[in-house]
Write a structure and sequence with these properties.
Length: 786
């Protein structure tokens, strides 16, 4: 019988751990065939796949012999863990095999056990910020038994809490920094056992298999889309937000916050955000109404908010009145729901479901895997609601409530939001062709975009037709911060990427009239590699490279800015250079002379803020939501563009450079002056005047660029290209000059994968593919070939 292999790897720290094993289903055992530990020094994204291929070559095993993939989930370096999981998802989804996750720390513990160590052990992983991830184990002849869940603590405080010389064996990469700090607490393991190796990963898989918590042959249970890293804490932005909101100081709670709107189903015009101390009294009042004698008072609510093992969310109506709240306690890997209530006038609108999902999302990032709660035995309605979330009764607490009524204990999975993918609503096929082609025109290329806060996938055929175009936007997760939070963006990309790709494949299959498409049916796989948020880019690059390797097809990398140039081909497929293109987005503002596809000259760019960035900052100064561009645009349509004469920065600079910082400062200064004088702000007039100042400079410099280059075609690209007033101004200018104007459809102005697919097709046809050692890059020069 042909062996069935499991491939295991981990990149949570400074090494790459690789393991290849044979699965024996009759004994639920894993036979280690090969094990490696390779120094990576923060280069695992460039070394991982070549190392895997070398391992398989040495073992004489082909890709199609892999029946399961296992990867380390951390805890460890956030970037390292994400590289591992994104790569594992790409391999497993392309091979259509289960993906099993194991703890990086468990793998180290099993290595200690295999090396003959017995008794108590402590594994410490470096958590940065002078913190460590500690887990204790009991090592025996049979097992490396974990004694506690993952957590994160200050290294100094944890070391001081340990008894000196109690015989514990200590390992883990945190010892590279803190060996002296922990040396008196026990004995240090040999240095070669401080980081994981493939054999340890395989042993951890075997232990979980024998315990019944994993099954390496169950593809449904171990769908690659379901696996997530072990984080043990929220992002810095969320942690700082919790500290800020737990203070009772007055604050403008609406700044940077966007209404949930239609994304939350029936709970329209309801705003969700973490509970703050300023609304503790409102919670207490609703508590008294909903909970009777078991209600918490204001002091108890305020006491809860700063606790790091708690998560509290609230719902507000359009007037800012609190209409619901939910809170939970994360302990021992479980979320315990402490409170949930909704104002009677707002019930049956889905608010409770969203609130509990927001708490559950935080709990998941803090290490929770399941959820529990107590509910009155007589409250059949609440029990039915929890049953709809897959909770089931497991017991009773007699006389639990103040009136001595029994409580029914219910447990279930974390009740996360049910949207299309990873809590995000998908926009599907906005740029795709409307009619199915008569025949499939190869090559078929999958493109992935993850440079900022959209996870997107598209499939293009050999004729340049977009067969499928899928985008999952993270705006709802960033809105309350007034801008994109890089750490949150990276986390959501890991969570969403498999689902987005799968929906894209299904959509393309339906368009082609075939039963199914898989990654193995692609002729190439491509992705954005630069520029952008490097943590977000890393996820897309790691996934796409791994999927290309597993499908045994070429990998094509694409410059994100070049994608915005190509987005115009969605509207006008036959367009040909030369042309001048205005790229205006949240991160870029430039005029580009496209002499030919792949031959670009930057005529001028911003010396400070980008246009989209200026829109966001002005919107924030006005107390409006994020993203600021659409909000400013809507207000401006109602205002007088001549009401306030804001400066037209660099209008007469004699070159094609831009500056938005001075304009932004002028607007904010005007706002502050008006407030100081007690004047009511005329938001439409301010928005219209600011927008006009931006547009006047953009159009004037674009006209100069057309005159200097002699180009007879002008195009737009980037998120700000969706601004109606800007588009109208360019239409007037081009009509006056007799220049053809091409603009991408509104859906293709924001980040999408269709534009990446268009570039990828050209690069593939030109033989411009990349090796599996390619990496993400935060910055790149559009003029330089790649």
């Amino acid at each position: 019988m042909k062996p069935t292999y499991i491939l295991a790897f981990d990149t949570a720290n400074e090494v790459i751990a690789l393991g290849l094993g044979v699965l024996h289903s009759e004994t639920r055992s894993v036979e280690c065939v090969a094990s490696r530990r390779i120094p990576a020094h923060r280069a695992s994204n460039t070394q991982l796949l070549p190392a895997i291929q070398e391992l398989l070559n040495e073992a004489g095993v082909s890709r199609d012999g892999i029946a399961c993939v296992a990867c380390g989930r951390g805890p460890g370096s956030f970037t390292g863990v994400r590289i591992c999981i994104a790569s594992a998802k790409g391999v497993a989804q392309a091979l259509r095999v289960p993906l099993v996750g194991v703890s990086t720390l468990d793998a180290i513990a099993w290595q200690l056990q295999a090396a003959g160590h017995r008794g108590r052990a402590l594994v410490l992983a470096d958590a940065m910020r002078k913190e460590v991830y500690p887990v204790r184990y009991e090592l025996s002849d049979q097992a490396a038994e974990r004694l506690e869940p993952d957590t994160v603590v200050k290294a100094q405080a944890f070391a001081e809490s340990l008894a000196h010389g109690d015989g514990v064996l200590i390992a883990g990469d945190a010892l590279e920094k803190y060996a002296e700090l922990f040396q008196d607490a026990g004995s240090l393991a040999p240095r070669e056992l401080w980081t994981p190796e493939g054999a340890g990963l395989l042993a951890a898989v075997q232990a979980a298999w024998q315990a019944g918590t994993v099954d390496p042959f169950d593809a449904v249970r171990h769908d690659p889309a379901l696996l997530l890293p072990v984080y043990t804490r929220l992002s810095d932005a969320e942690e700082n937000e919790r500290v800020r909101l737990s203070s009772s100081e007055p604050k403008n709670l609406r700044t940077g916050v966007q209404h949930a709107g239609a994304h939350d189903g029936e709970a329209q015009e309801i705003e969700y955000r973490p509970l703050d101390a300023a609304h503790a009294a409102d919670v207490a009042r609703l508590e008294a109404t909903a909970m009777g004698t078991d209600a918490w008072n204001e002091h108890l609510v305020v006491d809860e908010l700063p606790r790091k093992d708690r998560s509290w969310w609230a719902a507000y109506d359009t007037s800012g009145t609190l209409v619901g709240y939910a809170g939970g306690w994360i302990t021992d890997g479980q979320l315990q729901i402490l409170k949930i209530a909704v104002d009677p006038a707002f019930r049956r609108r889905g608010i409770a479901r969203v609130l509990i999902a927001r708490v559950a999302s935080d709990a998941r990032d803090l290490g929770a895997r399941t959820c529990s709660l107590e509910v009155r035995a007589s409250n059949a309605g609440a029990q039915s609601f929890y049953a709809s979330l897959d909770f089931a009764p497991i017991g009773t607490r007699p006389h639990y409530y103040s009136d001595r009524e029994d409580a029914v204990i219910m447990e279930g999975p974390l009740p996360l939001e049910e949207r299309d993918v990873a809590g995000m609503t998908l926009r599907v096929d906005a740029a795709a062709m409307q009619d199915a082609p008569a025949n499939v025109a190869h090559p078929l290329i999958l493109a992935i975009e993850s440079s900022c806060d959209e996870t997107a996938a598209a499939i293009i055929d050999g004729k340049g037709e977009i067969l499928a175009d899928t985008v999952a936007s993270q705006i709802d997760f960033h809105a309350r911060f007034g801008g994109v939070v890089p750490e949150i963006a990276s986390r959501k990309h890991v969570e969403a990427i498999c689902g987005v790709v799968q929906v894209c494949l299904e959509s393309a299959a339906a368009r082609l009239g075939v039963p199914a498409l898989s990654l193995a049916n692609m002729d190439a796989i491509s992705c954005t590699y630069a520029p952008g948020l490097v943590g977000a880019l890393v996820v897309g690059v790691a996934y796409a490279k791994a999927a290309a390797w597993a499908a045994d097809v070429p990998f094509v990398r694409v410059n994100h800015l070049e994608g915005h140039l190509y987005a115009n081909k969605i509207a006008t497929p036959d367009m040909t250079p030369p042309m001048v293109v205005s790229l205006v987005s949240g991160g870029h503002t430039m005029l580009v002379h496209v002499r030919d596809w792949g031959d670009y000259r930057i005529l001028g760019s911003t010396i400070d803020d980008a246009v989209g960035e200026a829109f966001d900052k002005v919107a924030k100064a006005l107390g409006l939501g994020y993203p600021g561009g659409p909000i400013i645009s809507k207000l401006a349509a109602q205002g007088n563009a001549k009401a306030v004469r804001f400066p037209r920065a660099m209008m007469h600079s004699g070159d094609l450079r831009f500056s938005l910082s001075g304009l932004k400062t002028a607007v904010i200064t005007y706002i502050n002056q008006q407030r100081a004088e007690g004047a009511e702000l005329n938001l439409p007039d301010i928005a219209a005047s600011f927008q006009a100042a931006v547009i006047d400079v953009q159009v004037a410099k674009a006209e100069t660029a057309l005159r200097e280059t002699g180009a007879r075609e002008f195009c737009l690209g980037g998120g700000v290209a969706a601004n109606p007033a800007l588009r109208a101004a360019y239409e007037r200018m081009c009509r006056k000059r007799g220049v053809r104007l091409t603009m991408p459809p509104l859906s293709a102005c924001t980040d999408n994968a269709a534009m990446i697919a268009l570039v990828a097709l050209d690069r593939f046809n030109q033989g411009k593919t990349s090796g599996l050692d390619a990496d993400a890059c935060a910055h790149t020069n559009l003029e330089e070939p790649y």
